[in-house]
Amino acid sequence: MKGIQITTNQKSKEETKMNQFKRIGALVVTCAMTLALMVPMVNASALPTDVTGTKYEESVQLLQALKIMVGDKDTGAFRLEESITRSEFSKMAVKAAGLDDAAAASNEKSSFPDVVKDHWATGYINVAASQKFIIGDDVGTFRPDDKVTFAEAATILVRVLGFEPSAKASGGFPTGYLVVAGQNNLLKGGVSAGANTPATRGMVAMMTFNSLTTDIMERTGFGSDEQYEVVDKTLLFNKLDVTKVFGQVVANSESTLTGSSSLREDEVQIKVDGVTDTYKVAGTDAKNYLARNVVAYVQESDTTSDKNLVLVANDSNKNTTITVQASDIQDLTGAVNGPQTLSYWINKTTDRTPTKATISSTAKVFYNGVATAYNLSDLKNLKSGKVTILDTDGSDNYSYVFVTEYKNIIVDDVSLTSFRVNDKYNTLSLVLDPADKNIKFTITKDGQPVTLESIKEWDVLSVAMDKPNVADAKVINVIVSNAKVTGKVTELEEDKVRIGDKLYEIASNYTEANRPTIKLEDEGTFYLDADGKIAAVDTVTRAGSNYAYLVNSEMTGSIDNKLELQLFNKAGETVILKGADKIKVNSVTGLNGTEAKAAILAANAGNVAQLITYEVNSAGEIYYINTATGNNTGTALKDMFSMDYKSDATGITYNSAAKKLGNFNINASTIVLDIPAGKTDPEDFAVRNMSMFVDKSNYNVEVYDLSEDMTAGVIIVKDSNGQTNAESPIALVDRITDTQNSEQTAVQKLYAIENGVVIDKLSKDATTLVRADGTKLQPGDIIQYTTNARGEIDKVTVLFDGRDKANVAKELDTKIAGTEMETVLGKVTKKFATSINVTASNMTETNFDITNAKVYNYDFTKTVGTQVSVVDASQIQKYDSADARKVFIRIFKGEVKEVVIIKE
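Above: the chain sequence. Below: its structure as tokens.
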């Protein structure tokens, strides 16, 4: 290369900027405009976790903000130690050079045989090759997936900056390029490796970051007067239209350094070299840097006068911050109007003495983000939140104090009409109306903005307000937490509780009015605030959810003299369990067997039979018993195992449509214990579910553990009358056999057709599958039945007695009392496509729609095999005395559910 002269042209940045677009043409103009409008900010909260705390923080932040280099799209990790490929570095080089739009326009055709047209980096590779940033090999291939070495990375960036002539003059590849890279600060920040060592993503990030602010080299002479000059231009400013400045954030939308602010939500003010200017935050978290010295990257709009922030980062060379949680503040001492000494614990468990820091006598104080006349002595009484002190001049006298104090709201409900958030404990009601110009508010979760609509019941809102009284607040910042832990309290320690194997602090404002006291053995869900402290409890003070009906209690054994309890549990089993040596009954601990028995009896006016909850130890012995608190108000009693309602003898009515028993909701999780009044033998008890209840029937009940939405936890039914549920499908008996269950107890087994399929079910004993007169069910009987918790049939209602199949007098239209069910036994007089006309001895000719009915056939003339079968409506015939066939019809709520053809 001949006639090379390398000089430095001292042009002003302003002149360079004015001439830039004239020189590089419309393509780059378009690119710059696009960048000005579209470059997004990756805020501090989005900094990859594997970069936080490393020397790569600022470089990664800026490269991410400019979309030059980003982290893993799935995990968010930056992977500092992983290598980088030629295709990946092509993209970085092209973006750093401001040629992103050129790449987008060059992806239609590949310039290399080993780069397919639809390769994700085709456009970048084409532009990188055409600009000679990265070149192919001797055989014309690009090798897009090969790893880039340290020397190659330096070479590519040297070429992007225009320094290739200098590199060739200094010895060429690799030495000359590495020398020039070092001379021009590309290796600043401790970047070093062997020439052939694969470059890591961390190295490349640092080198590319350094290249953005390095003065570039341009060709200024041609032909025999070939010259290259280092000019006062940078990739950052002249190619990406971004300026790097150092300054102090002196105002955001919530506050200035001295008081209230008139800035908009998307604005901050930064003082640079004594001049204060307004900047658009443009998606950055610039507002969080109030009073801090910052490194800011600014991009001026080409269509407006706005200055848009691309990135704002802490200037770690000038700022020193200390953040202390409220619970770690030990003391604040000092003379009035003089410097104050903050004493605090870094680790209360291991530190022997507190650490101290000096707060300047002229320190400015911000309370929940707003400059205020806060009395620093109040820090000693700070119950929640934290204090952050800031030194901006390296004097070790902290001149700014940020006090963050939270009030917790436990969300009960959110109105999207009034924008009101109601608190479960009624301590604070918050209105966050976006149209209200008198307040400024933010709602964030995990560092990201969220909407009011996203807030759900039991979310914990940690609310920081510039005034203690919400009515006076003008600035409200809300942090949403849905963190929770489920388990049991096993230890109490002052303001901490142990749940499982972890100790949790209780939020200081948890102790305010209306919050239930957290006690040992409390079990449930504990909701955590923004600091990870327990702010709410959805639990019951009882021994778990091991409900059981206490049948009897006795003291047994002349040696151990232990309490023994006979229980009918929620699985429908009768069990006998021994008590531990020491038993807790309700809140009283350390009771022996005799004392525990007395406490149980005293809780129920001397009666042993009652619903309890219990816990057993590893030996299977009961160590904790809770008896029900007598509430009987018909409303929920929060956080207590309670009997909330007891009906009188007339009972309360079941509404099947609403799934309500009286005023109480019933669902699939409601435990139903069928314990007839006056019965003491567990053989007469059964565990059921909501299918037990028959529409419009009355039940004498006890209701336990109502939730706030009036759903019953447990119902004890006292008037079990044997009636089955009218909603249940019919079962057509095929045969009954005698057998034994798994406990070798004599029972019966029903073989039948139900819901169109063959079933077989055991009965609970050997006397269940009988008619009203005590005779065993037989083929031809049509029944409904109920089952207990073990799936055993324990109740039967006979709708049609198969012995009456030939008895004309039994042609009846029967409405089942207390239900919406009707049965008809009669003759078909006419048949249509989807309906039939039927007469019975007490019913005139009536039409029945059978569109949705299941159809069965009972053939009593059949002597071999089963007499019952599933058929379709085509088998229904008009009555013919020569081939007598009647029909049995079951109607529920006006709809025919089943039709049984009975051949006599």
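The CA atoms of residues 312 and 595 lie 69 Å apart.
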